[in-house]
Amino acid sequence: xxxxxxxxxxxxxxxxxxxxxxxxxxxxxxxxNVDAWFSSMGIPGFMAYVAAIIELVGGIMLIxxxxxxxxxxxxxxxxxxxxxxxxxxxxxxxxxxxxxYELEIALMLISLHLLVAEPTALSVDHFIRNKRSAxxxx
Length: 138
Prior knowledge:
Keywords: Cell membrane, Membrane, Transmembrane, Transmembrane helix. With 138 residues, the protein is an all-alpha fold. Helices cover 76% and strands 0% of the residues.
């Protein structure tokens, strides 16, 4: 395993853990409460359910490396949505009332990296790719 592959694997797993925890947190708060919070910010309430499911399931999928590119694309969209709808007015570093969007930028950049990177050896994506390659070669 090359250094870059190792780093990509670590980035994928850690990003997966971060989003899994965020998804679990939304479920623990109660999706009705998250729906109300989203609505209070002008975001359609049903998006709370969409975000929670993508974060929870997507986090698990990233940890095991399944459909990494698709999940990463969805997470980029969620981070753009969070920045534009909630964080932008506070600025990059935030203000006295609200944190900034520096974390969302970092998470989005990791997601973008995973979106374009090749599947790493320690992923289900890599296993599926090798199975397909072997089947084609037969």
